[in-house]
Amino acid sequence: MMPELNDTLAWEYLEKSSHDRATIRHRRRVQIAETASYKNYPEAVKIELPLDWSLQGARLQSLLQQRRSLRRYHASNGLNLNEVSFLLWASQGITAKMGGHLLRTAPSAGALYPIETYLVIEKVADLSPGLYHFDVGRFQLERLVPEVRGKDAARVCLNQDFIAEANLTFLWTAIFRRSMAKYGERGFRYLFLDAGHICQNLLLAAEAIGCGGCPIAAFYDQEANRLLGLDDRNERLLYAASIGRK
Ligand SMILES: Cc1cc2nc3c(=O)[nH]c(=O)nc-3n(C[C@H](O)[C@H](O)[C@H](O)COP(=O)(O)O)c2cc1C
After folding, report:
1. Can you give the residue ranges of the Nitroreductase domain (predicted)?
2. 216 C-alpha to center of ligand 1: Å?
3. How do residues 151-167 score in pLDDT, each as one tens digit?
4. Contact 225, 131 (CB under 8 A)
5. CATH superfamily membership of 65-245
């Protein structure tokens, strides 16, 4: 029988790799030797690749070329609800129906969509600051906690101060059972892959509207989960991205 979620190897790993404010400085890190940052096969036949493509889709090329993690934002030039809506659609919007599945902009292992999206809104016209949840099915934002601000997101993300200056921050949690009830331990891998797809969609969409963002995976797990009000035996923060005007 498959072990219950909190008895899995995946869960043990999740616990053992969590950051905690009290222990982060003193915790013994595993010592792993570094290695080269890319690989080649010196003996292999080499084929030069052209770089002067004249392809359709040049817009995507320029977005990919320009994307850089952005940690300084021109907050005075805010975003509006229209732009936030576009970013939500680009990252997780429903784009097709297939049988019982509602397919989205980003791929998902088994079309199980284990990732939930929360937003900390700081400076967006037409939206009061606070913590929101994205209801994918209804394409609506649900206001959860008006008191949660960008500085709170920054604090739980290892005090990375630039997050407080962002117009908004996306926070992606996993509902572990969605994937692991089907795939068991292996389903744990898929959660992070799904989150990566979602984040990349968001970063390119942000680029397309004159914004930029920074992916964030450094956070104090328990503090972050509490900030979002999660039942952390079932749902935890995996990944985040701050977004702001260039
Ligand atoms: C999984 C992941 C986690 C990251 N976490 C952080 C973070 O917590 N804080 C931060 O400032 N940057 C973070 N980054 C951004 C990287 O530092 C950045 O992608 C890298 O330096 C390459 O630069 P570029 O994104 O501008 O190409 C993260 C990136 C990834 C992919």
Report:
1. 65-245
2. 6
3. 999 999 999 999 999 99
4. no
5. NADH Oxidase (3.40.109.10)
